[in-house]
Design brief:
It contains 9 helices and no strands. Helix 3 packs parallel to helix 6. By secondary structure, the protein is mainly alpha-helical. The longest helix has about 35 residues.
Length: about 240
């Protein structure tokens, strides 16, 4: 049962953002050390210039966006539900489902096998100029490579079971994960705006919080409120 007093995470961080703006104004009046007034023209212009780019260029945005495509295809094609039925229930799979599951598994092994050969060969295609993986093409594209593998296996399963009959079905499979991720992106936008405001205002410095504490709080809030967004839907 929903409570009228429960604030959705997105609404919560909109409210907190307004509070931060007010606190920055109060702090500037009372000259709190290091606190900037976000209502001043210079800070307002800075926020307008950085608000969107801070959200879109955040590493977590691309990780979730790209990962959602691969995971979404696995769910949309029926591969995930078939795997669950295969290993956790007494329901027998049809011959077509067994063949499709085998095809998807072989395709996934083949994809990651080829990827492993490329990774460990001497040409260094995915290595940096020093021949290591630190700050290399691989480290920057690992989520994309993994997501592509899941997408490939999902598509193989979809066409093998005839759940996918055309390119449009394949496209809808990739879009499915993004539709399911939409609540996260909306929440994350308002959360990133809140954190940008807090950082720009100098309130974190005024409170003398360590960088580690800020980092733990940052990702802890993302994890906690993402669960609060999706958990009620998973129980339906």
């Amino acid at each position: 049962m929903k409570s009228r007093f429960f604030l959705h995470p997105a609404i919560l961080f909109i409210t907190l953002s307004i509070i931060v703006v007010i606190l920055s104004w109060v702090g500037s009046i009372y000259r709190w050390e290091g606190v900037r007034n976000l209502l001043e023209a210079e800070n307002t212009r800075w926020l307008m210039l950085n608000m969107s780019s801070n959200f879109l260029t955040h590493p977590l945005f691309s990780i979730v966006f790209i990962g959602a495509i691969g995971i979404g295809t696995v769910f949309h094609s029926g591969l995930y539900s078939t795997c669950i039925r295969r290993w956790s229930s007494h329901t027998k799979l049809t011959q077509k489902e067994r063949r499709a599951l085998f095809t998807a598994g072989i395709g996934l092994l083949l994809y990651f096998g080829i990827l492993a050969v490329i990774l460990f060969n001497t040409t260094g295609l995915l290595h940096n100029i020093l021949g290591t993986w630190s700050d290399s093409p691989f480290s920057h594209s690992v989520v994309l490579l993994i997501s592509t593998g899941f997408t490939f296996s999902g598509v193989l399963f979809g066409f093998a079971t005839e759940n996918y009959l055309s390119g449009e079905d394949f496209f809808q499979g990739m879009v499915y994960g993004l539709r399911k991720s939409a609540p996260f992106f909306v929440f994350f936008f308002f959360f990133s705006v809140f954190f940008l405001l807090v950082t720009r205002s100098g309130i974190l410095s005024f409170l003398s919080l360590s960088d580690d504490a800020i980092t733990y709080a940052y990702y802890g809030c993302i994890g906690l409120f993402t669960l609060l967004i999706y958990l009620p839907h998973s129980r339906k």
